[in-house]
Amino acid sequence: MSVIHFVLLISRQGKVRLTKWYSTYSKKERTKVIRELSGVILTRGPKLCNFVEWRGLKVVYKRYASLYFCMCIDPDGNELEILEIIHHYVEVLDRYFGSVCELDLIYNFHKAYYILDEILISGEFQEPSKRSIVRSVAAQDSLVETAKEQTGSISNILAQAAK
Amino acid sequence: MEQLKTIGRELAMGSQGGFYQSKEFLDLVKSIGEARSKAEEDRIVLGEIETLKRRVSEPDIPKRKMKEYILRLVYVEMLGHDASFGYIHAVKMTHDDSLLVKRTGYLAVTLFLNEDHDLIILIVNTIQKDLKSDNYLVVCAALNAVCKLINEETIPAVLPQVVDLLAHPKEAVRKKAIMALHRFYQKSPSSVSHLVSNFRKRLCDNDPGVMGATLCPLFELVSTDVNSYKDLVISFVSILKQVAERRLPKAYDYHQMPAPFIQIKLLKILALLGSGDKQASENMYTVVGDIFRKCDSSSNIGNAVLYECICCVSSIYPNPKLLESAADAISRFLKSDSHNLKYMGIDALGRLIKISPEIAEQHQLAVIDCLEDPDDTLKRKTFELLYKMTKSTNVEVIVDRMIDYMISINDNHYKTEIASRCVELAEQFAPSNQWFIQIMNKVFEHAGDLVNIKVAHNLMRLIAEGFGEDDDSADSQLRSSAVDSYLHILGEPKIPSVFLQLICWVLGEYGTADGKYSASYITGKLSDVAEAYSNDETVKAYAVTALMKIYAFEIAAGRKVDMLPECQSLMEQFLASHSTDLQQRAYELQAVIGLDAHAVESIMPSDASCEDIEVDKALSFLNGYIQDSIEKGAQPYIPESERSGMLNISNFRNQDHHGASSHGLKFEAYELPKQTVQSRIPPATLASTEFVPVPEPMSVRESYPTTIVPSASSDAESTELKLRLDGVQKKWGRQTHSPATSTSSSTSKKTVNGIKQVDGSNTSNSSTWETYDSRKHVEINSEKQKLAASLFGGSSKTEKKPATGHKISKPSSHMVEKSHVRKSSMEIASEKKALVHQPPDLLDFGEPTVQSSDPPSVDPFKELEGLLEPTTQLGSTAAAATNSPDIMGLFTETPGGTHNKDDSDILSSLSKQPVTNMVGGATSTQVAQSSKGPNRKDSLEKDSLVRQMGVTPSSPNPNLFKDLLG
Q1: Coil, strand or helix: which one is B807?
Q2: Is B137 within 8 Å of chain A by CB?
Q3: What gap in Å lies between CA B459 and CA B479, rounded to an integer?
Q4: Angle of helix A79-97 versus helix A130-144 axis, rounded to 10
């Protein structure tokens, strides 16, 4: 039903970093899907297609540093578009966290979920404007958390120092 | 440097943990990260689950702590463990007043619960309340939950509020409300059918995000009922035009493309609306042509839009100019180095050849390259393309290839698919029956258990019926060759059940027909089969029936029957079988053997599986018996039509599995070929579990010949799955590839080879071509050429040859085409200019200040400023400049590193994408900018020039997809 059936973030070692299921999968199926797909995707060579046909569906994946972002779509979907949706998500994550890295996603996986919820809703791409996504997530944060700002500044200082 | 950054980050994390994540959680994540095996990880997580179980049930947990526990539950669940004990706490959390806590609760429940979970009913009330909240963030959180959790039953509870929210002042809320309504429509169209007009209304929302979101439900609505939305064609076209002309706010640009995601959605909708509708399609030609020209084919997103354009063009009423642009785009995809683009090119080619089959020719070598590519994904896509372009001229090559591939893979899902495709193609285009049988044998051998049983029935029927002509010798030759091949195959160790059934049937019918094999040899083989596959009842049943036929034929021919000892022991075993079906067959066999030659011949005539059997439909010979029974108080016979549900006989195998337990005896074995089964053995006879010899020979004759014929049942079913023999060449022997090659090459010769006009017979021609071939090309190329010729040969007029010397005529023809393209593109350009001056009709999203509707009028420097603005242009020049450590990260990253090393910047790979910007700095950006718009024409000209020279143009941006580090 949905354009995107699920979103998976898997590390190169096969550890799951984020899962979001838009179509209905039982717990057993979920485990199986993750096991099967990480087996297929993590072993693919670097120069091959970013698409895998899998159980009559298609999985579009892209690797950013040590993380694989995977989205599963119907066979008639536009794979290049999905690649860009993944990229869009990564760009928003980057803008939100400020040079995002895997650790950000590990420790703040709930934030990654909130951002994903602004980009995709029930498996459909809903917001093409990066600015409004970040603004809306930030609005939620600022309303409830003042602490974030402080940590943000600490990481900024460190980032400056690192330069 | 990298090290320092990592340390800094961990420090930042630590301090962050002090605010809202405990040390415990950080330790958990860390220990899981360091776990060396899955078992160790599981142990840690199970420990964590125990801790959490204890903690969440403690009284008076502070909210902040509880929130953390819930997040830890989410984490545990994400790792694949069961956290269902905590679901109720997540549900409770959604009731909280604080948005911070509530949001966590909503996040957790949307991740935990599927729409059919029992706990959802406990959340509906909260959702209702939250949808009415005056804080729009609360409303948004609730709407997110609505999209995931509300099911068909609970839709009415929230529907009124969601509809009210469509007019909410905040665009974020309107957008989510639209999506929620869309979700309702998907779950239960009837519940929101009266609200569909809202989607049309929201299409005119003045926020582009809301308009874009509305396209999702509209796409679905249009795909279910095209005709009710034809009136929107003009609106969609006008929106698309405005989007393409950059009238949306800059925030919607993505990698310098104006709102590409919205463009793609619109193109998808237009493809549906224009399908088979000339009038609607004519409205779209201009704008689609515009987008074709404006698309930046050097960026991934540009190609995504281009691909969608091709899909649209191949769906709407064909337009020659657009088809040409589409073909151009496809050839660019196929020539690219990127596997992704090749894949899209193959897919697009598959769409376009439905309309213009001739475009496949110019890409034949590219297609064959893809077919032989090590990348499985690409290979499968190419097989899909081949499947779409199969004709009777190339079916042999294609099916051979498919079968080779089928044998080589292990993935059952795909194996099934490709096997059924092979069968379908073979049935549709088989050049000869013998070839068909060969192919079927291969399919059965390697994917036997994956194919439909009907396929086997069809093949039986084909062997039995032959060609339906009077050519008896050909038929018997076909059968003997089938028997030969099957006896040979029986030597293989493991044969799929379906195939064995087929083999048994054929051996029973025709094993001894040509006198080549003795009855004892065949019966020996059959009992071997029954023994070797002793746990497959169906195969055993087939084997027994086959044995019976062989013996019957022997008796009828007047020969003495000596049952082999192994057959005898087999029969004894079957007579006492638990399967009533097997038992009955064994008893029947016993009875037949005891009869005299005359009786046997009439009940089991040789080669009669296709004969029509004369039937006393009224079963008048039984009248006396029935009369007696009724007088004794038996129930009268109930006609078949009134006994519905009892006779589900479509699947022989199924019936057999349930046979023993349900009604006991099978019905379908008594079904008569080519007749509607009105008269069958009266239930009185069938109901008894023993074999009841009916005294009158007439009825015996009726029942037996039908047991021979499993194909009888297939006959009834297989109307849709028939081998199409009409229009197919009827000749013997496997058609070799060479004739096809020679004909195609000879035709191509005339057009291709401008120097040497070869006229003459096909054979001489083909030989010249062969020598020419071997002289000019390396071995591999000639192989590919041949393959290409046999694949594309059927329709091929021009044969593409890599040899430069002989290419003269082809490029020149290309040049003609090209100049035509140029002319047409200029025409479109002028048309477009005319259109630009038209006032925007329906919708205007343009920002009043932005004057960039017409690309030529864009001030490149202004554009450049926008580019350099660090906040908006992430990942491009600016980001690359300011975040230089990230770029460093790109070079220092070692893919083989440990966990810590992997934490290098994710975006480091990202910043590599706009390589032109990064390397060339501002100037190159400017060039890229100014080359847009009017200079498109120049590049087209250049492209055609390059083609005239016969040089493959180097792909426009080889740096695409370079972010795949490794």
Answers
A1: coil
A2: yes
A3: 11
A4: 40
What gap in Å lies between CA B182 and CA A23, rounded to an integer? 15
Query: What is the rounded CA–CA span in Å between residue A15 and residue B436?
Result: 48
From residue A17, alpha-carbon distances to A94, B78, B695 in Å are 16, 8, 76
Q: At what angle do helices B63-78 and B87-94 cross, to 10 degrees?
A: 130
Higher model confidence: residue B156 or residue B963?
Answer: B156
In A, minimum Cα distance to B171 occurs at A132
CB contacts under 8 A, B 617-656 vs A, are none
Q: Maximum Cα–Cα distance for chain B, whole Å?
A: 107
Q: Is A110–B104 a contact, with Cβ atoms under 8 angstroms apart?
A: yes
**Alpha helical stretches, state H, B490-615:** 497-510, 519-532, 537-556, 565-575, 580-593, 597-603
Separation in Å, CA of B711 to nearest CA in chain A: 32
What chain A residue is nearest to B891 in terms of C-alpha separation?
A: A65
Q: A65 and B902: CB-CB below 8 Å?
A: yes
Strands A67-73 and A124-125 turn out to be unpaired
d(CA A50, CA A58): 10
pTM, 2 dp: 0.65
CB B939, CB B932: distance < 8 Å: no
Of A67, A81, A84, the CB nearest to B906: A67
Whether residues A78 and B308 touch (CB distance < 8 A) is answered with yes
Choose the closest CB to B905 out of A1, A101, A109.
Answer: A101
Taking CA–CA distances from A138, the nearest residue in chain B reads B137
DSSP assignment letter at B620: G
The gap from C-alpha B135 to its chain's centroid, in whole angstroms, comes to: 45
pLDDT single digits (tens) B669-723 = 555 555 544 444 444 444 444 444 444 444 334 444 444 444 444 444 444 444 4
What is the distance between the alpha carbons of residues B304 and B325, in angstroms, rounded to a whole number? 15
Q: CA-based angle B160:B166:B170, to the nearest 5?
A: 130
What tokens appear for B188 in the block? 């239960």
Containing H/E element for A70? strand A67-73
Contact A130, A92 (CB under 8 A): yes
Distance CA B859, CA B874 (A): 22
- Residues 6 or more apart from B726 whose CB is under 8 A from it? none
For tokens 């071995």, name the residue.
B779
Quickly state the pLDDT bin for B467 (edges 50, 70, 90): low
Subunit contact B209:A127, Cβ cutoff 8 A: yes
Question: Residue B186 and residue A31: Cβ atoms within 8 Å?
Answer: no
Q: Which amino acid is at B531?
A: E
CB contact (8 A) between residue B906 and residue A113: no
Compute the nearest-CA separation of A1 from chain B (Å).
7
Which residues, in sequence order, are CB contacts of A101 under 8 Å at separation 6+? A65, B9, B903, B904, B905, B906
Nearest to B209 by CA among B145, B135, B265: B265
* B:872-891 residues touching chain A, CB 8 A cutoff: 872, 874-875, 883-886, 889
Helices B155-165 and B120-131: crossing angle in degrees, nearest 10, is: 20
Contact A110 B172 (CB under 8 A): no
Residues A111 and A37 sit within 8 Å (Cβ to Cβ): no
CA distance B383 to B400: 12
Asked if residues B943 and B46 have their Cβ atoms less than 8 Å apart, the reply is no
Structure token digits, residue B601: 């011949």
Summarize pLDDT for B514-548 with one digit per residue, the tens. 777 888 888 888 888 888 888 888 888 888 888 88
A&B contacts, CB < 8 Å: 271
Structure tokens at B831: 């048309």
Distances (CA, A) of A82 to A6, B211, B260: 12, 20, 12
d(CA A107, CA B29): 8
Identity at B93, one-letter amino acid code = M
